[in-house]
Input
Amino acid sequence: MSNKLISKKTLSIELRGNLTKTELVSQINSVTDFIKQHLNKLVEEIMLDFNSIVKIDTYALVFIIQVERFCRFNNSKKLNIIWKNIPNNLDSFIKLSSLSGHLDIR
Output
């Protein structure tokens, strides 16, 4: 995972490795721990970039839901969560699960 504050308002996280059943818990923990450490009153949105993800399976949906839940329930303000460079097969899973209208995918 690579990360940076690209502006005072946007926290950018570049996901790496796999989002599969075997690596799901460690990926969720890494991302949520990073968000906890770097979240401040200035951050208004978090951008998660899938560009460096190598392999995914349907558990990637669980990852998305868990990160969205974490940000909604562990922050007093509403953060905009941006999902960037979603792989085509994950985009298909999102559409099949009717989540596309609830996620900010770019």
